[in-house]
């Protein structure tokens, strides 16, 4: 167990700092865990892999958990994944039970976080061992499956798939590198762009632009008024929290955490989905759901344990297949690349110490999140009042520092930040979905190599169907992932017609 | 017979042109999907465009043109000037430091709701302290390249 010696006080301090900054970001409505990771990225450049991951995992866990604070006090989810926390959290706060609501949420978050860390620890190595046997054909199909799953779970399936393919297209701009067996020629651009765009768009400026700058543009357009329903509710003495409030909720916690972890494993499915799924399942299965929506702790438990379980779940495909599970882990892929580490099926076995560190730090981040929020919730509740007109300019500044330093001082990367900030803004206006776009962008180049190399060596398109039993299974999954949502939509439409004709 | 059928799917990729093989497929798929989307949403596109046009060019509605375009203009100027000033002092990060201060001050002023004396003082302090701290931590402590 060599890794224990790497668990230095410095690492623990970084997890602590990350978690605390994450909670603050999560607590401010409109600022998300993804934004926190994007903004703090430049700090990790000189930290080394363990330090970088310590900070980023802390930010991730803290950012998701912090989202419950404005959800309860402002009726406004701090991050999309806290959407269902508002249903019961805010009514409780109105009754003077704000502190109780938050502490129930904190306990649920801790449970969800630890549950998913355990799943990550046992599932990721198994999945990676399985994926090591994959040839280029299966690897291409896995990416194809990831894109169809993302697309089909988007609000509008056609738009979701379109966004994913657009991401792939954007990633292909630039050279087809010799290092991966390409011919070193550039494509999808004009000659004069070659000087700037020879290697295409760098991943991190693209991500920082879409998740940092475009959010600010969207808010500037609204005049920064915020869209809550007025004043934050102050935490009063009221009725405090006791562990009796979560008595009999173990089944709920386990179910919601499982939902959260599973949704996290599916690539590109956001936290809001898992919160809603866990909430509706609790409503369907609990013995007494009559008080849900009016201030029942069980609703908060469902939402918060599922969204914190997302963190460990989203790391499973990242560390075993190299496919990010959500937007925050997408940025983490960039951080890994910066440290010269390739995530994929080989990652765990060739970086066994780093792997143990990741799981340990995830657990530590959850414990710190719990301690910090449980005992200091009164102070954290004040953070939601920090004005955005002070924060947003600082975020733009940090985005610039991050983008500029990524390739050791390339000004073009800063302009990429602006380009994708505006693009992200336009995308959200015309209905292009950002997360599928990003995941397509991240996986696009690998998809090309796997696709072209498979065809170069086998010389026939049918190889994608006949290579192995795994390929056939993957095709079945691809077909299900496309057909299932179509079936569900047709069924609900038919149901709607029946109601209308009655 | 069967082998004849399968040979329909034969493909030979010319190495010289291999950089175009996958992008061509993706571009076609993208265009076809765009076509389908345009056909499906044809009724919503024109009203949507006119709504967007109205929001941007007319003064009515919720679209805060001043803050939106102000943000864009300030950010563009900030990026450009940072680089220009940074070239005067290479490898010091002064371009970042010197331009971030006015940028943060102006953007905060643009965003703030009510400009009381107290608010402006806080904004001013924030605009001096935040870039100073960021510059010190990033370039001096962490040795990170800044413009």
UniProtKB/TrEMBL annotation, chain A:
Spans through the membrane: 12-45, 51-73, 101-124, 130-150, 157-176, 196-218, 329-348, 354-377, 389-406, 464-487
Keyword Transmembrane helix: yes
Residue ranges annotated for the DUF112 domain, each copy included: 12-439
Cofactors, names only: FMN
Alphabetized UniProt keyword annotations: Membrane, Transmembrane, Transmembrane helix
GO MF terms, alphabetically ordered: electron transfer activity; FMN binding
Protein's UniProt name: Putative tricarboxylic transport membrane protein
Originating organism: Modicisalibacter muralis
Species lineage: Bacteria, Pseudomonadati, Pseudomonadota, Gammaproteobacteria, Oceanospirillales
Automatic annotation (TrEMBL), chain B:
TM ranges: 20-39, 68-86, 92-113, 120-138
Keywords from the named record: Membrane, Transmembrane, Transmembrane helix
Cited Pfam families: TctB
InterPro entries according to UniProt: DUF1468
All residue ranges annotated as the DUF1468 domain in the record: 21-147
Name this protein carries in UniProt: Tripartite tricarboxylate transporter TctB family protein
Organism, as annotated: Modicisalibacter muralis
Lineage: Bacteria, Pseudomonadati, Pseudomonadota, Gammaproteobacteria, Oceanospirillales
């Amino acid at each position: 167990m060599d890794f224990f010696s790497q668990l230095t006080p410095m690492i623990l301090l970084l997890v602590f700092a990350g978690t605390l900054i994450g909670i603050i970001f999560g607590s401010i409505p409109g600022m998300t865990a993804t934004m926190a990771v994007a903004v703090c990225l430049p700090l990790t450049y000189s930290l080394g892999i363990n330090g970088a991951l310590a900070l980023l995992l802390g930010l991730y866990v803290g950012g998701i958990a912090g989202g419950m604070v404005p959800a309860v006090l402002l009726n406004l989810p701090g991050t999309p994944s806290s959407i269902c926390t508002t249903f019961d959290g805010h009514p409780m706060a109105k009754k003077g039970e704000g502190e109780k609501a938050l502490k129930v949420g904190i306990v649920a978050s801790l449970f969800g976080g630890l549950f998913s860390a355990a799943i990550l620890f046992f599932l990721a190595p198994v999945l990676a061992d399985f994926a090591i046997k994959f040839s280029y054909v299966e690897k291409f199909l896995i990416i194809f499956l990831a894109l169809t799953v993302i697309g089909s779970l988007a609000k509008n399936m056609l738009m979701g798939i379109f966004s994913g393919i657009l991401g792939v297209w954007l990633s292909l701009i630039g050279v087809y590198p010799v290092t991966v067996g390409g011919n070193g020629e550039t494509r999808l651009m004009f000659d004069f762009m070659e000087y700037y765009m020879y290697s295409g768009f760098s991943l991190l400026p693209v991500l920082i632009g879409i998740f940092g700058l475009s959010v600010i543009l969207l808010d500037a357009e609204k005049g920064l008024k915020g869209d809550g329903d007025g004043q934050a509710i102050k935490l009063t003495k009221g009725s405090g929290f006791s562990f009796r409030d979560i008595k009999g909720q173990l089944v709920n916690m386990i179910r919601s955490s499982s939902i959260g972890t599973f949704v996290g494993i599916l690539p590109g499915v956001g936290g809001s989905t898992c919160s809603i799924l866990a909430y509706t399942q609790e409503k369907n299965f609990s013995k007494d759901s009559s008080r849900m929506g009016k201030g029942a702790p069980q609703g908060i438990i469902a939402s918060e344990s599922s969204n914190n379980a997302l963190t460990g779940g989203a790391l499973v495909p990242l560390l075993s297949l190299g496919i990010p599970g959500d937007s925050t882990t997408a940025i983490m892929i960039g951080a890994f690349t910066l440290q010269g580490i390739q995530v994929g099926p080989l990652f765990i076995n060739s970086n066994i110490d780093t792997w143990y560190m990741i799981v340990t730090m995830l657990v530590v981040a959850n414990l710190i999140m719990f301690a910090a929020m449980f005992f200091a919730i009164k102070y954290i509740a004040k953070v939601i009042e920090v004005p955005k007109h002070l924060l947003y300019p600082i975020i733009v500044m940090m985005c610039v520092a991050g983008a500029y330093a990524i390739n050791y001082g390339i000004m073009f990367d800063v302009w990429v930040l602006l380009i994708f900030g505006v693009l992200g803004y336009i995308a959200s206006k015309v209905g292009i979905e950002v997360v599928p776009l990003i995941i397509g962008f991240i996986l696009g180049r690998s998809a090309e190599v796997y696709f072209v190399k498979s065809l170069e060596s086998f010389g026939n398109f049918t190889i994608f169907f006949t290579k192995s039993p795994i390929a056939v299974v993957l095709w079945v999954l691809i077909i299900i992932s496309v057909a299932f949502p179509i079936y569900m939509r047709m069924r609900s439409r038919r149901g709607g017609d029946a109601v209308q004709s009655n | 017979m069967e082998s004849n059928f399968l040979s329909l799917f034969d493909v030979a990729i010319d190495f010289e042109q291999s950089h175009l093989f996958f992008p061509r497929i993706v571009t076609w798929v993208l265009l076809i999907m765009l076509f389908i989307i345009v056909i499906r949403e044809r009724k919503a596109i024109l009203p949507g465009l006119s709504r967007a046009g109205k929001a941007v060019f007319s003064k009515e509605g919720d679209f805060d043109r001043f803050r939106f375009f102000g943000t864009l203009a300030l950010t563009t100027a900030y990026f450009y000037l940072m680089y220009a000033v940074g070239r005067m002092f290479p490898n010091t990060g002064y371009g970042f430091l010197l331009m971030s201060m006015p940028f943060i001050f102006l953007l905060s002023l643009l965003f703030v709701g009510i400009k009381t004396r107290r608010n402006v003082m806080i904004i001013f302090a924030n605009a001096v302290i935040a870039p100073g701290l960021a510059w010190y931590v990033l370039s001096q402590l962490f040795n990170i390249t800044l413009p």
